[in-house]
Amino acid sequence: MADRITLEAPLDGAFGPVVRLIVGGISERADLGFEEMDDLQLAIERLHAEAGGSGRLTLAFELSSGHVTVRIGPLEEGGLADALQRPAVPGALTLARVLDTVVDSYGVEEATDGRLFIRIVKLVRG
Amino acid sequence: MRTPDPARTRAREVDRELLRRLHQEGDRSAREQLVKRHLQLVRSLARRYAGRGEALEDIEQVGAIGLLKAIDRFDVERDVSLSTYATPTVVGEIKRHFRDKGWAIRVPRALQELNAKMSTTIDRLTSRLGRSPNVAEIATELKTTPEEVLEALEVATAYTTLSLSSGPGGEDESDPLESLGHDDAEFERSEDRASLAPALGHLPTREQEILRMRFEEGLPQTQIADRVGLSQMHVSRLIRKALGTMRDELQ
Question: Torsions phi, psi of B88, nearest 5?
């Protein structure tokens, strides 16, 4: 059975290091290597910075055998959610390109209440 | 009894006249003159906080914001010099800047020492294991706990990580994130925000090259570290710093 941890954090840069430390702790529990942990932290940092929305962000972590899944949101409609669903522009260093590099998969999901979340998955390579 | 220094007394009188003109007549040029007259104080206070991973010029800019606040809040009826009044405001603004950047002014010595060993330990373990070590392995190698390793890594990262929501953080400033995605014009702007490319050219060549290797070639940090002759941790920090700088450029 997967372990779940949910964190609600203010969309304030001052809390970035707090979030990063928690992601580090979760990565340690998931047995991610240093570089994989660093990748996951970078992905979440950038999404925390770009999410927009109401001033708070929920990060729901799920630790399963072999991978960590994080759902982050809610995202504002028409902003980051749309930008991430557009095809990558060749040669452009977009946030989508950063995510392509540092996580194994990502996608925008709609919750039952209509709010948008981004789901990212990082595999544990060991 | 000490004799008042005539030059200091004269400077204080000039300050008071400028403050009176600003607060009672709304003379903005008096404000500018006051800033110029006290920039040396800001520089002097900023120097105390140099060498903590932040450029001195940036600390001075933050201190100047504190000076402006002190000038604007100064009560001309009070019998206190502007420099005395402004000093705690300038220092407070600088300390708040460091706090907002997410790193403590004082890092415990034990964490500093652990942090100093971290980079070489990670590189040594990576070489020995043929893969990136996990936190538990780093902790075992350093004879400490995983929690302390994470804290020490955070110290290293925080020193170079830029604010997630840029701006000097004054109370009056709106969060740039709040204005996103409300109509078509905003939508286009948010698209621009998602593209980091325009700011790439403003980065130092080494950082551009590291970003290119990481996000175009898809090389892992360990390989980039080998190519550029830096530690993996240093590469990680430069990537963060470069992405943060580019984001700030776009805002």
Answer: -65, -30
If pLDDT is split at 50, 70 and 90, which confidence band does B180 have? very low
Mutate which of A35, A57, A116 to test chain B, going by most B C-beta atoms within 10 A?
A35
A14 contacts in chain B (CB < 8 Å): 99-100, 102, 163
Q: Which residues of B touch A49 (CB under 8 A)?
A: 164-165, 177, 247
User: Once rounded to an integer, what is the mean pLDDT over residues B204-212?
Assistant: 88
The answer on pLDDT for B110 being more than 70 is: yes
Q: What is the CA radius of gyration of chain B?
A: 24
B97 Cβ partners below 8 Å, 6+ apart?
B54, B59, B62, B168, B169
pLDDT digits (tens, 9 = 90+) for B231-251: 888 899 889 888 887 776 655
Interface test with A, best of B151, B189, B190 (most A CBs within 10 A): B190
Does the distance separating the beta carbons of A42 and B243 come in below 8 Å? yes
Interface predicted TM-score (ipTM): 0.88
Q: Which helix (H) or strand (E) holds A73?
A: strand A67-75
Report the pLDDT value the prediction gives residue B178, as an integer from 0 to 100: 26
Q: For strand A116-123 and strand A105-110, is the pairing parallel, antiparallel, or unpaired?
A: antiparallel
Structure tokens at B48: 């105390």
What residues of chain A score a pLDDT lower than 50?
Answer: none
Burial A1-22 (b: 16+ CB within 10 A, else e): eeeeeebebebbbbbbbebbbb
